Amino acid sequence: MKYGFLKVAAGVPALKVADCQYNAQQIIALMQDAESQTCDVLTLPQLCISGSTCGDLFFQSSLLDDAGQALCRILEASEEMSLLTFVGMPLLIGQKLYNCSIAIQQGKILGIIPDAHPAQAQQRWFSQDFPYEEIELFDESIPCSPFLHIQMGEAGIALIFQHEDSLMQRAETLALSGANILIHQACQSDLQGKYQGIKRQMQSCSQTLLAASVYVSAGMGESSGDALYGGHALIVEEGEILSEAPAFQINSQLIVSDINLSRLSAQRLRHSAFRQASITESLAISAESRADQEHLHRRLEKLPLVPKSAEEFEEIFNIQVCGLARRMQHIGLPNLVIGISGGLDSTLSLLVAVKACDKLGLSREKVLGITMPGFGTSDRTYYNALHLMKALGISTREISIKQACEQHFSDIGHDASQHNIVYENAQARERTQILMDVANQVNGIVIGTGDLSELALGWATYNGDHMSMYSTNASISKTLVRELVAWIARSEMPEDCARLLVDIIDTPVSPELLPTDQSGKIAQKTEDLVGPYELHDFFLYHLLMDACPMDQLFFMAQESFRDNYDKATILHWLKTFVRRFFTQQFKRACLPEGAQAGLLSLSPRGAWSMPSDAIYRAWMEALENL
Fold it and tell me: Hey, which end of the chain has fewer CB within 10 Å, N or C?
């Protein structure tokens, strides 16, 4: 385990029914494979040492003795392995036969989990209930319980026999007792549609219980006399399938993935059921964790705030549109005043505004778009703004801010040749003043255009573009704004508007507060100053959703962006993000209202609570020590 991730594996051995020595050989090969991939945990199917379809051969002492000898071979092979392995076998305890899962690591049996409620068909051979908490095996005293809980660092590991009728109830009991890794051992035969139901069950179980589910079932080596065993294996985290084995394979199969324990812990901390739960019924033991993992066996999304389907884009856009429409209804259907810069954010707000009017059956002329060219306005953004407003059929005005800003510089005694923060923020506040006053003129409200990424970084002028009367984009990250506008262009707009939107998407992100270059092009590019938004959105998502430590966040960013940025670049912008996220909280403490549409929000009204004077020393020291 490293950087808050637990590497888990599920293996389906190519076994032979009742040939325990052969099966041990196949199991050892899977263990060696998992160990070579620096896995922390490997789980194998029920009764995999003997096979689950031995029938009345389970009563034969020859089979049971051979299974014990096979277990000895497996223990010996595991002596130099850090891997924790769950292997299934029939075990005779106190003159009763039990279907057991044996937890082994480094040549030792850590514990035994018996199936205290075998399936109806298995009750022919295996006993119910289990009165012991400890048994003697190979001259060792071994912890033994259906509720055995193995603690491996941050991971709480518990096992469930998949056939149990009360599976969800048992899983809930184990989860509330601290298990965040649920091992599902099975010997399920295949029928039409059966595995799809199991897969949905695993997704639902892991999502509901804020856990990871590792499912593995008996494979093709089992008897096909009356049923076929497909050898399914599945690793799921919070409803997301991380890895899935191909079914119906002749050879052994192994799947590997990394479980984000920090994310699971952060989610459970927010959930009252887990905060208030008391540990019950479980018998706890410990296992050693490893720290030699270098790379993840799972794909991390580079753009975690960007949805994958058209349906999700449509849902986000509809929430924005309906949120604004509802506010308009409440306050008497006012006019909507928007500053249109020709950039992405104001474009999205404009698209939301016209769709809100369409939804309410109002003329688009109720939307008043104001373009306010200043010292840094480029021809590209200026004309895109004009053409887009015309194409959408809204009311328009053009008000230059140059003269007003020059007068303001004179009034406050600022040298206009000094292009500093005074020079930049005065322009932003002048634009906001114009919008607010025009809104009063036309009985309207000012629609805010700032996005989530800008709010996280504080890349907004306090009481300038930071302020509005209703904000449509406050939960929409910059990476999502770009993709959402692209989706709207493809699916919602006529060809002339779509072409304009594509050019706006391709325009460099800029506040355009500094003069253009000699050719009239944008000179002030935001991502050159504060860093790539794809990195900052990645940092924001994992800091808020996972509450992950800085070393893990840095590691995850390296894994995701190794082909885009070197380590030094990622670390530089991560430090920038942490510093700005803390120091700019005062701007987020007084945000305008706006319905949340994206996954995250920094609204001070319940979404994100943070004091403006918090110190970021601990976070920065962690980064300095990397």
Answer: C
Which DSSP state fits 625?
T
Radius of gyration of the chain measured on its C-alpha atoms: 30
Q: What is the pLDDT of residues 473-515, one digit of tens each?
A: 999 999 999 999 999 999 989 988 999 999 999 998 888 888 8
Domain 310-624 part of CATH 3.40.50.620? yes
Residue 279: per-residue pLDDT: 57
Q: Which residues contact 70 (CB under 8 A, 6 or more apart)?
A: 20, 21, 23, 24, 49, 89
- Fold classification of 5-286 (topology level): Nitrilase/N-carbamoyl-D-aminoacid amidohydrolase (3.60.110)
pLDDT-derived band at 136 (thresholds 50, 70, 90) equals confident
Give pLDDT, residue 282: 65
Residue 276 has pLDDT above 80, yes or no: no
C-alpha span between 98 and 586 (Å, rounded):
62
Q: Where are any strands of DSSP class E within 345-478?
A: 367-371, 395-398, 444-448, 470-471
Q: For residue 167, count CB atoms less than 10 angstroms from its CB and return exposed for 0-12, middle for 13-18, buried for 19 or more.
A: middle
Phi, psi of 489 (to 5 degrees): -60, -40
Report pLDDT for 278. 61
Residues forming beta bridges with residue 140, ordered by sequence position: 137
Kind and range of the H or E run holding 214: strand 212-217
Q: What is the mean pLDDT of residues 595-600?
A: 96
Residues contacting residue 456 through CB under 8 Å, at least 6 positions apart:
536, 540, 577, 580, 581, 584, 602
Distance CA 466, CA 454 (A): 9
pLDDT recorded at residue 132: 82
How far is it, in rounded angstroms, from Cα 606 to Cα 626?
A: 33
User: Cα dist. 109→105, 176, 368 in Å?
Assistant: 7, 26, 73
Beta bridge partners of 159: 183
The model's pTM is: 0.90
